[in-house]
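User: When convenient, might I ask for sequence and structure tokens for a protein?

AI:
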Amino acid sequence: MQQLEDHAKGIRPHRTIARTLEEVRAAELEYFERVWYQRSMAGVPREMRRLGVQEKVIQQLVAARARLEAKYTKSRLDPRDEYEVGVLVGKLAALRWVLGYGWDED
């Protein structure tokens, strides 16, 4: 009952045990892959061929996308709007900061 009352008052319990380095790294990899997938969608194979991109590179891109689509659901990979893209990028930046990267590092 106390938890329900605290929740109603806006009081949130604090997590007393920090996430492990393994958990943070796994989350960073997931968000990296999801952001990469989103950004890779600008590379349409037909357009890439027109621009002279090597066929081997195009096939690697298509294969990498397929691996991520098998790992995550398509709906999880495709953000609904630009706001959600920003949230993904922000979470990736925060996770990288925790891992020791600077805010402006790629």
Residues 25-98 form one domain. The mean pLDDT is 87. The radius of gyration is 19 Å. Residues 8 and 33 are 37 Å apart (CA to CA).
